Amino acid sequence: MSTRKSILLIHPPVSKPCESPAGLALLSGALAAAGVDCRVADFNLECMFGLLHAPVIASGTWSRRAVGSIQANLAALRSPALYENRDRYKRAVMDVNRVLHIAGQTSNVNISLSNYSSPDLSPVRSPDLLRAAEQFEENPFFFSFKRRLADLFLVKIPDIVGFSVNFMSQALCAFAMAGFVRKRFPGIRIVMGGGLVTSWMQIPGIGNPFSGLVDDLVSGPGESPLLAMCGVDIEARPPGAIYDYSGFPVSQYLSPVPVIPFITARGCYWRKCRFCPERAEGSAYKPQRLPELSGELDRLTGQRRSGLIHFLDNALSPKFLKSLISNPPGLPWYGFVRIMEHLTDMDFVRGLKKSGCVMLKLGVESGDQRVLAALEKGMNLSTASK
Question: What SS3 string covers 322-363?
Fold first, then answer.
């Protein structure tokens, strides 16, 4: 067996800083269970706070107010009281976004709590991503990630650094960070995975357009590839999903209660909508076994006296929803579901409510039945109306 490698997993900016990244928690759990020296870092949260607390020049009444109240607004976004007043909540978010916008303008980029864009660089062009890596010092988060990486590497220089890139809003920053690591620590193996990378890998003949910067691009679930890179016999890995959120600063996220992200299945059980990448990329639907799901969910919720479960599935299956009714998770929960006949059954939806459901996110897409048929949504307007 090859020598075990150490690994640092990074969640790069920018994505909504409301909860720990579930993908890294799953990877960390699998690696730790196999005895791998694994560390995680939410650079999205740390870099964003670094920018929010940095000195900025504010002109105009709104900008000066937003900068002056940043500490109060961040504290309020972690307090349940703010969410009882929609207008106060909207104002707090707009003020925080205003400070991020001002800070980003010094680097000619647009930054908010949920997005990152540059008029000069596109996250869908390989040359621009490589340029972001070459010009890493121009990234507005440079001073934050430089300092944080120095702290982490001072403790121990990892053999592998993995970046989880799920959204286009993360791509340019992930490549800037990769460029910094490659220049300062050329011997480290750089790996990229996540939802966005998986989509890139479905492009015929793409290979690795970032060779020389990124050593490995991982498509789909990353547990087995990372375990193999770390020198672990993947045939001996424990079955089932294991989440490890211990490496994330749960109390620092901008949420009124701790949020537990949780995935019950990979892919989508419907997988027929014409606009869906799951269909275009041929992704298989892989639900986890209900006993294993229940056991892991019970373990996670048993560690918390309060909180909110966020089911991240593309759409929660009717089978899993029924299991929640018969075996409530013990904390409030929400997630995406398809519009289906089950939701017209009052006993069923009351059962969901009793199980802790506080919100269901529904995609109607259109009020025209012909459009829905063309999209192959598999639903009708009468069901949606009910």
Answer: HHHHHCCCCCCEEEEECCCHHHHCHHHHHHHHHHCEEEEEEC
